[in-house]
Design a protein that fits this description.
245 residues, 7-stranded parallel sheet, 7 helices, binds nicotinamide-adenine-dinucleotide
Length: 245
């Protein structure tokens, strides 16, 4: 069994389902203890709770809530070595000139401010340790821009910018900050989309298929591990050739 991350503790946000759950499971399989942070832990009610897996209820848009989640995690596991900022929402599919202001605020709050708050509250622990890994789940949409998704496109581009800025701030503390930019991924959300829409998205991807959760989880586990030792502030592509930069 791959035990590359043995002895490490990770926080994965949005880990109750979808891509975040896949990342959390992969990190546990790599020997990591994982705090699964989510605003809604319902999908995990029946999940087996091993010693190396802990559920933490949190709203990443709220500073006090994030502070409390950090305390709970450190009380349970002692420290935090790895932060995967995965929690995110899409927002409505609406033209910019009709996009509701409240939806803009909510998407930016979860997808951009939430990443900032988690970094802000966890970095002091990593600085004390003199090491740490932060991996942000952005999206190919942050590079390319999707129509009818102005807030999501802006927030994910913001996550890419934040990754590059933060990486330079904490490099001397031994903390490396990178992000991944997946294309549309095979998750339960696909059931809510029409076959035509999925076909349209696939047509933009030279490999002619969607990304898989395990492809994202495997790449993140590698970025979090010792073999990824000379890369920070980088954007790891997962778009099947859609974005070649
Ligand atoms: N699914 C895709 O095709 C795709 C493609 C590229 C990037 N991404 C990104 O991957 C990440 C995960 O996407 P997913 O498809 O697994 O989504 P999902 O909706 O299945 O899961 C997101 C999780 O985040 C949690 N969450 C939402 N708001 C929160 C908050 N305020 N505080 C704490 N937790 C919160 C939700 O409860 C949920 O469990 C997102 O950042 C998304 O933008 C997804």
């Amino acid at each position: 069994m791959d035990q590359t991350l043995a002895g490490k503790t990770a926080v994965v946000t949005g880990a109750a389902r979808g891509i975040g759950l896949g990342i959390a499971e992969k990190l546990v399989r790599s020997g990591c203890r994982v705090a699964a942070w989510d605003i809604d832990l319902t999908p995990l009610i029946d999940a087996p709770m091993g010693q190396e897996f802990r559920q933490v209820q949190v709203d990443i848009t709220d500073l006090n809530s994030v502070t409390a989640a950090v305390e709970t995690t450190i009380k349970k596991f002692g420290t935090i070595d790895i932060l995967v900022n995965n929690a995110g929402i899409n927002g409505p599919t609406v033209a910019a000139w009709e996009y509701p202001e409240e939806a803009w605020d909510r998407v930016l709050a979860v997808d951009l401010k939430g990443v900032f708050l988690c970094c802000r509250q966890i970095i002091p622990t990593m600085r004390k340790n003199g090491s740490g890994r932060i991996i942000n789940v952005a999206s190919v949409v942050g590079k390319e821009g999707n129509p009818l998704a102005i807030a999501y496109s802006a927030a994910k581009a913001g996550v890419i910018g934040m990754t590059k800025s933060l990486a330079k701030e904490v490099v001397d503390d031994g903390i490396y900050v990178n992000c991944v930019t997946p294309a549309m991924t095979e998750t339960g959300l696909l059931e809510e989309m029409t076959a035509d829409y999925i076909a349209m998205v696939k047509a933009k991807i030279p490999m002619g298929r969607l990304c898989t959760v395990s492809e994202i989880a495997d790449m993140i586990a590698w970025i979090a591990g010792p073999q990824c030792s000379f890369t920070t502030g980088a954007v790891f592509d997962l778009s099947g050739g859609r974005a070649t930069y």
